[in-house]
What we know:
By secondary structure, chain A is an alpha/beta fold. Chain A contains nine helices and ten strands. Chain B is mainly alpha-helical. Chain B folds into two domains: 2-221, no CATH class; 327-606, ABC transporter involved in vitamin B12 uptake, BtuC. The longest helix of chain B is centred in the N-terminal third of the chain and has 31 residues, at 2-32.
Amino acid sequence: MLNVSELHSFYGRAHVLQGVSFQVAPGEVLVLLGRNGAGKSTTLKSLIGLLRPRAGRVEFGGVNVAGWEPHRIARAGMGFVPEDRRIFTGLTVAENLETGRQPPRPPLPAWTPARLFALFPNLGQMASRQGGRMSGGEQQMLTIARTLMGNPRLVLLDEPSEGLSPLIVEQMAHAILALKQAGVTMLLAEQNLHFAARVADRAVVIESGRIVWAGTMAGALADAASHLQV
Amino acid sequence: MTFLLLQALTGLASAATLFLVAAGLTVIFGVTRVVNFSHGSLYMLGAYIGWTVLGHLPRTPWGFALGVAATAVALAVLGSLLEMTLLRRLYRAPELLQLLATFGVVLIVQDAAQAIWGTEDLPLPRPPWMRGFIVIGAERFPSYDLLLIAAGPAVLAALWLLLHRTRWGTLVRAATQDRAMLAALGVNQRLLFTSVFALGAGLAGLGGALGLPLGSANLQLDLSVITDAFVVVVVGGLGSVPGAFLASVLIGVLQAAGVALVPKATLVIVFVVMAVTLVLRPHGLLGRGGTLAREAEAPALVVPATLAARWLGLAALAVLAAAPLFAGPFAVAVLTEAMIAVLFAASLHFMMGPGGMASFGHAAWFGIGAYGAGLAATLLAWPLPLALLGAVLTAGVVAALFGWFVVRLSGVYLAMLTLAFAQIVWAVAQQWTDVTGGDNGILSVWPSGMLADPRAFYWLTLALCTGGALLLRRVLFAPAGYALRAARDSALRAEAIGLNAAHLRLAAFALAGAAAGLAGGLDAFSKGSVFPTYVSIGRSVDALLMVLLGGVQTMAGPIVGAMVYTGLYDLLLQTVALWRLVLGLAIVTLVLAFPQGIAGALRRGQA
């Protein structure tokens, strides 16, 4: 599904990603673990094209999309859920969903507001509420739902559990597992190991812009004390 | 009473065309974050194209409607072309450069329109159906004006439906808040931006064509319309269409009432409305503060000159001081002009570089200084030193007063307000004929005694302008200058360490105003006269070009820029008939080629 090799990205002169490589297989949930500033968000932004990688390949469905503009990558089937939520606060919930709508991608069934409201029941009760008047947890749900409206084959989730109450984190984990069952492939950036353990199949660990560990989630948990210190 | 009602209705009718322009401007700004200076030119083109198209159509209501619609479509197409060729490349440039580049378009359109339609005013002969009227009290009121009054709310409603009931509108509103996120959701921004620009330009064209029966198509429309439109969008809140509607009605009615009640104070009324609004609601009636956030730009560093550069400067100064001993009278006159330009540019640089306040109306202070000196010398018969002091103080005090309203505002608002203020000063200079002499200006402002010798006056100018520029430099590298730059880079953090950002900016604003006033006063004495052109937008743009030509990063930049620009400009004026076209193309090319100024490009080249 996704094959990232030797990705290099810069912020100005700062060399943030120094040759990141990993793969995501269809149907799996891969978690990108790492501390603050390790390069998790930068990796996701480089994949979706919000940050243009300086070098390296991003093969998505067999096509190298590195250097493409974000809207082309998104239309190719990559969905992006940013960490700072970035919902459109002046738009209603329904309108926010509309901004994400893209044509269906058979054979996967198309996402509709009705299907998404079934997945996130809270949202269904506030379809005409302005995005700016929702709680942080509700906004996070809306961000994910909005991205799903584009019927992505792969969803990049940047710290979906960050800044949420334990109850909402629990709901989030349920939602992600439900998505996984619906056949959505996901790449998560996380520093919350417990949350990652609940949803991920495999893990890669990024440190100072390089992948330093890769393996199964179970393996990551086993090695957590000695290797990871996350 | 009837008279007042009629005036109010007339005001509403003119508010309608104003709203069409302002709505386009504000929608374009909301999505692209570009303040389109050439929006008034699109309106003017709408008037001209409408005049031509309507002249070829049957003079019936349907013919008129068809012609107006065709004009709007034509302008939408022209607007798309403008967006695709120029604006698209400017979205990441600093806002001042966007204003400057679109002003280049204003110049190009001016010469093009003059070449196509000539300099005569072109009124649209009203067909019989348009001459109808209704009777209010004992007065007649044209039915066409009623049609216009209805057009305003109709367009507002149509725009609201378009923005709130279509997918396109939803995407436009989303782009207003977060373009990058929208792109990551798969929306092609380029298409969206072009279509938004087409809509805005179409509205301007609609306004131009609909306003045609009220007046005529003429070459002054562009700048008069854009000034009013700037005031409207600032008062209404940048990016807010209903705000633009409210503000255009407010200003249209106040202007009409002003004409009836206090004819001479119309412009003052507009300014007071603007000032009061911004004090009470800094982001306009319906504007939201958050919508103005934009990606941080790398602030211009101002670094002290190297030792070599200082010696070079000293040598240049020595040559300049000795110049009158071997140069002829014409060279001395050009050098005097260049020295005045140096101080003018340095004062603007001080405000926009270290001060971080992008002024698009710096000519206001220059003009106030020139008029202050001119009036002091003629009306009050003050001697030159006293008159110059008067010029400096007047400009400084007025700048401090005006600054009090604007220093809390951010980039685009500040640029638009300084422009609007300069236009008001310009209009006062032109209309208050009893004092300023209107277009005839103030004559015989000559220095007397020893200074009557142009060479002596040149030495005085050299001393004062060099002294003024050095003083600005001294402030820049004093603790106050560092504090000012801290306030520019982050007002919040500066406040947190105990600096009063507003006071610092106000002081810088007043100081820059005073320095520009000195330049203006000197110019008055050097030319022996003062005219409204001293306050024109062109003069403000001159200063901007000098600074940007030289680059904002160094103190030497604006000085070199001023000298080069003065020379080139004199040459251009003397040799080229279509100088506006050439200058406009030069500005656009310059901005596209060097989005950070020439000195900035050189610096990057070295790095």
